[in-house]
Amino acid sequence: MKILVTGGAGYIGSHTCVELLNAGYDIVVLDNLYNSSEKCLDAVKELTGRDFPFYKVDMLDKDAMEQVFKENEIDSVIHFAGLKAVGESTKIPITYYHNNITGTLHLLQLMEKYGVNNIVFSSSATVYGMPKTVPITEDFPLSTTNPYGSTKLFIEQILKDAQAANNKLSVTLLRYFNPIGANKSGKMGEDPKGIPNNLLPYVAQVAVGKLEKVHVFGSDYPTPDGTGVRDYIHVVDLALGHLKALEKKSNVPGVHIYNLGTGNGYSVLQIIAAFSKACGKEIPYQIDGRRPGDIAECYADPTKARDELGWTAERDIDEMCEDSWRWQSTHPNGFEG
Ligand code: NAD
Ligand code: UD1
Question: Over the stretch 125-145, which tens digit does the pLDDT of each residue have?
Fold first, then answer.
């Protein structure tokens, strides 16, 4: 089975490529390298001992993308490619809508033309907006608070409409919670450009001495220690969720929606403590005000993925931090460093 992985040089895509190759799938990777490095794909090849075609192609260039479909017999697509920074999306919303939505429309046009009927899409817990309660199940009301989130919600709708019009299409929407961690080898991991927005890479860069201290955004939330609670999930568990989705839902027409989370919530201070244990260093932090748009608590009810896909996240918070630290400490400047 040959899988086209869009955004396959990125953080989650590259970890998924490793698991796909190890499980015996053939892959084709498409990425414009806007937020990633080709060196990451070298690591994928080294770790798996397998080669695969890579196309440095922008999904906005439909003709270039068509070459990929012409030259490869694709059975399924896993669609990771997209811009993902929430703050940036509020500053350049049109760029976000154009990149994420137009890119997806091109992909769907080509899938239709070349008779490819399976797609797994990277959605996000962001589509639950400001959930009224936790844990979150897949049938919670959907809304968004920023243009990035809107692209996810709109693409979910586009895929639902495409499925309604083509009863051969299998669409799987995977709503990720907070992916962290790295491949055990320490050879691949998250490599954010500039100062990280997300908590874990920020903490990791403080631990390695690149940043001075963690700014904790708010300590007055209605949570056990007052700081924000999230469902952190090991990126390898997340990657394996994609394999389960392919295994169970390929060629099963319909729209299949799953939360990929652990079902456990950890606070900012618990994450700092877990990372400190993993790296054996004190991590300096200071309590600041809340970050606008943040919610107190967000964690998944992952029961549906367990029951229908046979998937459960297995790696705990200590393993997530240890694996992140192995990558960060050996690659303080990421792939290009
Ligand atoms: P990432 O930025 O590391 O990977 C995305 C990849 O897509 C990058 O390699 C980038 O170069 C590529 N890309 C972007 N626009 C492209 C285009 N027009 N043409 C070709 N390639 C393009 O991000 P990630 O963390 O690996 O996220 C993967 C997907 O999962 C994204 O769709 C993201 O929105 C979604 N997601 C991520 C998180 C998270 O916390 N990381 C959470 C929920 C959902
Ligand atoms: C962010 C995105 C969300 C996306 C999710 C997963 C925002 C507003 N939301 O959510 O759309 O789906 O990532 O990629 O960016 N924190 C600090 N200090 C920091 C950074 C974060 O205290 O320097 C806190 C936050 O307030 C939050 C927690 O750490 O309580 C996690 O933050 P983050 O990693 O940014 O993820 P989310 O807020 O869940």
Answer: 999 999 999 999 999 999 999
Closest ligand to residue 82's CA: 1
Would the pLDDT of 336 be above 90?
no
Ligand 1 in contact with 35 (CB < 6 A)?
A: yes
* Nearest protein CA to atom 11 of ligand 2, as residue: 126
Of residues 94 and 293, the one with the higher pLDDT is: 94
Say what the pTM is.
0.98
CA dist., res. 45 & res. 177, Å (int): 27
Is 36 close to ligand 1, i.e. is its CB under 6 Å away?
yes
32 in contact with ligand 1, CB cutoff 6 A: yes
